[in-house]
Design a protein that fits this description.
Blueprint (H helix, E strand, L loop, with lengths): L2 E6 L9 E7 L6 E2 L4 E6 L4 E5 L4 E6 L6 E3 L3 E7 L4 H14 L2 H8 L3 E8 L2 E8 L8 E4 L10 H7 L5 E4 L16 H14 L5 E6 L1 H12 L4 E7 L11 H9 L3 H9 L10 H11 L4 H13 L3 H4 L1 H5 L6 E6 L17 E6 L6 H4 L1 H9 L3
Parallel strand pairs: 11-12, 11-13, 13-14, 14-15, 15-16
Antiparallel strand pairs: 1-8, 2-4, 2-7, 3-6, 4-5, 6-8, 9-10, 10-12
Helix pairs in contact: 3-13, 4-5, 6-7, 6-9, 7-8
Length: about 375
């Protein structure tokens, strides 16, 4: 029996409405396997690779480099078994006649966004997906200056088999700007309150950069609640460091052009620091209370907050499996000393200068985090 399947413009991010075809890595007639690179697609935030979701033969490439198409639009057709050109023609015609960009955009919205009450008149923004699965949930915490969209590509992949909750830390994005004194325990307490409010139960906790430090603090305080701990380029870890120059420049910048240099340091490919990304960061920083909140958090990271100083010791109290994903040339937090991590830590090194492998090397991050599931 022949099976014909569409390859469509994927949705990478809450704000993504369209994508531009950059370059195909396959041609008509090629057989591909699950995970093979098919095509580079550029959005206003990032250029990423659309991969094959299963094995098959590329029967027709519909969209050519330079074309910009809405999310869900047909860009190619793959099939398994004997399929005639007439069958492919009919499939393409039927798809395009029935394609409704507005309806598809609604269906493709991968996150349920909610403001979760954590008490004291405060709330944290949470993006949830994969709620229909019975597997152990993942909880994702972003880094300094980030938001839940930093996890878009990872969340989309994990949500195929697990419930996934991305939590926006206090002082960031659309979450409360009340960070208390801005200490590590303030951030950990707020994130824990959100996990409690969501009634998630035992879960796999994953943190990037500052979110990694917050995750260690949370897991060490309640080890029985977490079946695994994922650390992606974590800050303040044994053997690592944190760039004061980066933090100071990020907080001080008030315009997109001032942000370009520090934000470019996050990526191996500095072109990923797009103008749209910079504008979004500036917009976030201009929200009431955001600048003060980020300043307080930054001052504690660079100051004498004892909670940060004790992270190495608290890391050793965690008995759950740990996955450490780190980049050798990370310019923001440095390369941690894996030998100082607990014995049950599995280390995934990325040969890159990136601090954002969940965007630039999402394949490595996804496969590494799946070892905790």
């Amino acid at each position: 029996m022949s099976v014909i399947e569409p390859i469509k413009v994927p949705k990478w991010g809450l704000a993504m409405e369209e994508g531009a075809i950059v370059e195909w890595h396959v041609k008509e007639g090629d057989r591909v396997s699950e995970g093979d690179d098919l095509v580079d697609i550029e959005t206003t935030k990032i250029t990423n690779v659309c991969e094959a979701h299963r094995e098959g033969v590329i029967k027709r490439i519909v969209a050519q480099p330079g074309q910009t198409l809405p999310v869900g639009a047909l860009i190619a057709v793959m099939a398994e078994g004997e399929v005639s050109d007439a069958d492919i023609d009919a499939f393409v015609t039927t798809f395009e006649e029935n394609f409704d960009p507005d309806e598809t955009a609604s269906e493709e919205a991968s996150l349920d966004i909610a403001a979760v009450d954590i008490g004291g008149g405060r709330s944290l923004r949470v993006g949830a997906s994969g709620k229909g699965h019975d597997a152990t949930p993942f909880v994702l915490l972003h880094g300094f200056g980030g938001d839940i969209e930093n996890w878009t590509l990872v969340q989309e992949a994990l949500a195929a088999t697990h419930p996934v909750y991305a939590i926006e830390l206090p002082g960031h994005g659309q979450s409360t700007k009340d960070v208390g004194d801005g200490r590590l325990e303030d951030l950990a307490g707020a994130a824990t309150a959100a996990i409690d409010a969501l009634d998630i139960g035992q879960c796999i906790l994953v943190g990037h950069s500052l979110g990694g430090a917050v995750s260690v603090a949370i897991a060490a305080a309640a080890p029985d609640r977490f079946s695994g701990l994922g650390l992606v380029c974590p800050a303040m870890m044994p053997g690592g460091d944190v760039s004061a120059d980066y933090l100071e420049a990020f907080v001080a910048a008030s315009r997109a052009r001032d942000l370009r240099e520090p934000v470019s340091l996050l990526f191996d490919d500095p072109q990923l620091a797009t103008r749209d990304m910079l504008d979004q960061v500036v917009k976030m920083k201009r929200l009431d209370g955001a600048q003060d909140a980020l300043t307080r958090i930054k001052d504690n990271m660079l100051g004498d907050d004892p909670a940060y100083q004790s992270l190495s010791e608290r890391l050793q109290t965690i008995s759950a499996p740990i996955t450490l994903i780190a980049c050798k040339g990370d310019r923001i937090v440095g390369a941690p000393d894996a030998a100082q991590f607990p014995a049950q830590t599995e280390v995934f090194w990325v040969e890159s200068d990136s601090h954002m492998p969940q965007i630039e090397r999402v394949d490595v991050v996804i496969e590494a985090l799946k070892t905790l599931a």
